[in-house]
């Protein structure tokens, strides 16, 4: 293991990418403690300690940046929401977006540029709402309630989100792994020690029931271990579709004739569907939290709460399954795969090229994606069921969802490093 770890530092490009990613994460953590001007974070911390709700989950994802009300308080969620909306609109909803999605690299750049602009708009609107809402919920949170003060706070929060968006893109381009996922990973890992402390304090607060507290802690640890093993097992699952290429004679050389395969993962979408589902489900609930007392806002708060047996839990499961299918088929299009195989003289043994190949690949992908989607949904709601049945604190639910994301992102990053090492003929971590 130590020898394999040393292989990383033998590759200059890989070493540079890892150091760049680490430096970006250091900047991210420093920014999580830079306070927004004209605010009193102590009052906000008191309010969040007294209330258990959607803000605790957002705070866990941001590495306590929301609790500190730093310039990164809103995290990367506005960018994720903008990405979801743009991808949905690209599916023949807006003709221009659909045309850009089919134009290759040039079209993707146009969509990315629009996503950035849309992120700024969403971040600005959300920052104004967060400032006003928190000041209503916690009197004295805003030191100076003038228009200029609110404008400064909104601009600071929006600039923080835009900087995180830029950092994520830089990590993706010059670092290791998906930059947005890495930032969420870093925020969760930074907040995990605090969550473990809350759990220990809750389990052992009653000295007369010390044995029961130990049993609860052991049960949570066992569930966490099972969750980690299950995520790794499903993420590693691959269905290999055999492909045979016909021989072609070009000039004096013969091409093709080799056998290969198309690797189709059980869960090709990774943990992105969980992040997308949480982002979309938390958006209306976050807005409604600031308007408590209004009948519509109260209905949204009660029914969109996915931590209880309610409409919110059903929507949470449906969104995870839907985004798993959506993200998988965006990444791996059966029609494009079939066309590429046909152009290069490839075929699946026993399946006719063209429409029959497309139908076969679609059927296989549907079955694999269903397994991955049901797994993600089951793992996501398991901690919630434990809370309801065993009376565990909310930190278990936050920790369960966080652990799912952390393990998934860590595994994907490890695979990226592995592929870089194997490409340069070095033995990797997962090499047998």
TrEMBL record:
Compartment(s) of residence: Cell membrane; Membrane
| The protein's role, per its UniProt record | The central subunit of the protein translocation channel SecYEG. Consists of two halves formed by TMs 1-5 and 6-10. These two domains form a lateral gate at the front which open onto the bilayer between TMs 2 and 7, and are clamped together by SecE at the back. The channel is closed by both a pore ring composed of hydrophobic SecY resides and a short helix (helix 2A) on the extracellular side of the membrane which forms a plug. The plug probably moves laterally to allow the channel to open. The ring and the pore may move independently.
Question: NCBIfam families in the record, alphabetically?
Answer: 3a0501s007 (TIGR00967)
Extract the Pfam families matched here: SecY
Q: Give a GO biological-process term.
A: protein targeting
What domain of life does the native source organism fall in? Answer: Bacteria
In the record, what lineage is assigned to the organism producing the protein?
Answer: Bacteria, Bacillati, Bacillota, Bacilli, Bacillales
Q: Where are the transmembrane segments?
A: 18-36, 71-94, 114-135, 147-167, 179-198, 210-234, 268-291, 311-332, 368-390, 396-414
Which coarse location class describes where this protein primarily resides?
A: membrane
Designated name of the protein: Protein translocase subunit SecY
Keywords from the UniProt entry: Cell membrane, Membrane, Protein transport, Translocation, Transmembrane, Transmembrane helix, Transport
Q: Which gene encodes it?
A: secY
Annotated Gene Ontology cellular components are: plasma membrane
Annotated membrane topology is: Multi-pass membrane protein
Q: Describe its partners and assembly state.
A: Component of the Sec protein translocase complex. Heterotrimer consisting of SecY, SecE and SecG subunits. The heterotrimers can form oligomers, although 1 heterotrimer is thought to be able to translocate proteins. Interacts with the ribosome. Interacts with SecDF, and other proteins may be involved. Interacts with SecA.
Family to which the UniProt record says this protein belongs: Belongs to the SecY/SEC61-alpha family.
């Amino acid at each position: 293991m130590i020898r394999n770890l040393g292989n990383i530092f033998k590759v200059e490009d890989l070493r540079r990418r890892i150091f760049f990613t680490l430096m970006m994460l250091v900047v991210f953590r420093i920014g999580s403690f830079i306070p927004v001007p004209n605010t009193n974070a102590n009052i906000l911390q008191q309010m969040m300690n007294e209330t258990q709700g959607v803000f605790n989950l957002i705070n866990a994802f941001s590495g306590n940046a929301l609790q500190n009300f730093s310039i990164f308080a809103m995290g990367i969620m506005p960018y994720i929401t903008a990405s979801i909306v743009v991808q949905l609109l690209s599916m023949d909803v807006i003709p221009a977006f659909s045309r850009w999605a089919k134009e290759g690299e040039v079209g993707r750049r146009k969509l990315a540029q629009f996503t950035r602009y849309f992120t700024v708009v969403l971040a600005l609107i959300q920052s104004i709402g967060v400032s006003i809402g928190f000041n209503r919920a916690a009197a004295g949170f805003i030191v100076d309630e003038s228009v200029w003060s609110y404008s400064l706070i909104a601009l600071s929060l929006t600039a923080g989100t835009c900087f995180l968006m830029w950092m994520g893109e830089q990590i993706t381009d010059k670092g290791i792994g998906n930059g947005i996922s890495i930032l969420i990973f870093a925020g969760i890992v930074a907040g995990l020690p605090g969550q473990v402390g809350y759990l220990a304090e809750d389990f052992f607060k009653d000295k007369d029931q010390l044995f029961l507290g130990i049993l609860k802690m052991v049960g949570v640890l066992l569930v966490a271990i099972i969750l980690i093993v299950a995520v790794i097992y499903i993420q590693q699952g691959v269905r290999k579709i055999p492909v045979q290429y016909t021989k072609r004679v070009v000039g004096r050389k013969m091409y093709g004739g080799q056998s290969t395969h198309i690797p189709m993962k059980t869960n090709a979408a990774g943990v992105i569907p969980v992040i997308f589902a949480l982002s979309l489900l938390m958006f209306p609930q976050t807005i409604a939290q600031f308007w408590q007392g209004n009948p519509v806002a109260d209905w949204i708060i009660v029914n969109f709460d996915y931590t209880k047996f309610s409409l919110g839990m059903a929507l949470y499961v449906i969104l995870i399954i839907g985004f798993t299918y959506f993200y998988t088929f965006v990444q791996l299009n059966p029609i494009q795969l079939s066309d590429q195989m046909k152009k290069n003289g490839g075929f699946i043994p026993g399946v006719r090229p063209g429409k029959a190949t497309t139908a076969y690949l679609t059927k296989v992908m549907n079955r694999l994606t269903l397994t991955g989607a049901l797994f993600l949904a089951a793992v996501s709601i398991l901690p919630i069921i434990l809370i309801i049945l065993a009376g565990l604190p909310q930190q278990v639910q936050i920790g369960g969802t966080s652990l799912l994301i952390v393990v998934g992102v860590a595994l994907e990053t490890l695979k990226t490093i592995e592929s870089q090492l194997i490409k340069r003929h070095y033995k990797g971590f997962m090499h047998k």
